[in-house]
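Exercise 3.2. Students should predict the tertiary structure of the chain below and write it as structure tokens, then compare their answer with the key that follows.

Predict this chain's 3D structure.
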Amino acid sequence: MKQSPVLFLDSGVGGLPYCDHFAQLAPQIPRIYIADRAHFPYGPKSRDELGALLQDLITRALDRWPAKVVVIACNTATISAIDILRSSFPGISFVGTVPAVKPAVLASTSNRIGVIATERTIREPYIYELAKRFNPNAELVGLAAPELVAFVEHEWYRADREARLKHVIPYIETFRKAHVDSIVLGCTHFLFLLDEFKTLAEPEIGIFHSLEGVARRVLQLLENRGLLAERSHRTRQAAEESSSENLLIVTGAGPVSEAWHNFSKTYGLTIEVWE
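Answer key:
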């Protein structure tokens, strides 16, 4: 691999939309996506547990690839462990996927903002403190949705539109009863259901996520490090022709399911298993 890749890491498929959005902007940069199947889900885990397992995964990845930018494509891992990772790997630029609380708070007229996320993220004081920083009157309505994370991870790829809407409806109804006017998708997995959230919530309730902001930050860091010099000289087609550079690493023993093969094909990544 000649070009320094960008590493993306999540407990499962949730961060794939971030990886793909970045690929659309910089197709010449190789992508290594690590799906930590062995430790899925991250939501119930403690800060210390998450910090330790992420350090191990990143150490293994950096031993193999000369990455300079790592995207923690998981809201829970970002909030719980990104400070630990920055201290442990001072030569690496880390980009986190912080829930898009700031734009939701600034856009709200009712001062009531819903956040749907994992158990760990909903328990973290960070998101509530972040809201108060931009509006002292803001009230967050946090809703943990581990069942929706599991649905995206294991069933989304074969579910039809009706099934996807059915899984989102109860959460929208809960937020409507709480009189929120904004909903933050605080888990990367929920981007797979972005259309369903918008269909059911808008225009009365706005939907907020961090997809574009994360991609822009990665590009900025690569530019700062002089790693985008070839950007205009390599097309997406050329990048796809050398797709062996773009990997989907699945951790954990056992066979790779049909779902993983579908995701790898959809996102142009070659599967490799880390046991």
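Discussion points: The radius of gyration is 18 Å. The mean pLDDT is 93.
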